[in-house]
Every structure is written in structure tokens, then in C-alpha cells.
Specification:
The protein is mainly α. It has four helices and no strands. It starts with 11 loop residues before the first helix and ends with a helix.
Length: about 90
């Protein structure tokens, strides 16, 4: 009855070691840039591709969203080229 929190007091997803956030075993640390890219993609999916609405949800201007998407497309092009060169 002390002021301690023990493992059984935690929610199930936090009780198991080795699981990443949300109980996913495939979790790995990401750079802040990568987290931002993933978040933008998830918000776009949530907004069903509506870029204006996604920009509003993200709290950024439409042109800023376009800039992020353009940079991400550039990154994807570089990745595709490096994979093709490696084959």
C-alpha cells in the first residue's frame, strides 16, 4: 500500500519487455525527419489525400505541405536509384 507502481499496475501493452511503442515488435528508433515524414503520410491517409485538409490538421500552410511532399518524393527517388544500382 506504499506509493509504488509495480508492473501489474501497468496496462498490458506496457507490461511486456521487448515490445516497441503500441506493442509492436518491429519498432526501431527513427530520426526526427523520418518521424515527420511518417506523420505527414498518416495524416494524408486520414484525410483521404486531401492536401488542404491535411495541411490544416498538421497546422502548416498548404505550400509547406507541398514542400515536404516534394522533398519526400526526392528522397524516394534517391532510394530507388540506389537500390537499382545495387542490383
Amino acid at each position: 500500500m506504499g506509493g509504488f507502481i509495480d508492473i501489474p499496475d501497468l496496462p498490458d501493452q506496457l507490461q511486456h519487455r521487448g515490445s516497441g511503442p503500441g506493442g509492436r515488435d518491429d519498432w526501431r528508433p527513427l530520426s526526427l525527419d523520418e518521424v515527420g515524414k511518417q506523420h505527414i503520410q498518416r495524416v494524408l491517409a486520414m484525410c483521404k489525400g486531401n492536401r488542404l485538409r491535411a495541411a490544416q490538421v498538421l497546422g502548416i500552410g498548404r505550400t509547406s505541405l507541398y514542400r515536404h511532399l516534394k522533398e519526400d518524393a526526392y528522397d524516394q527517388t534517391l532510394i530507388a536509384r540506389s537500390k537499382a544500382a545495387g542490383q
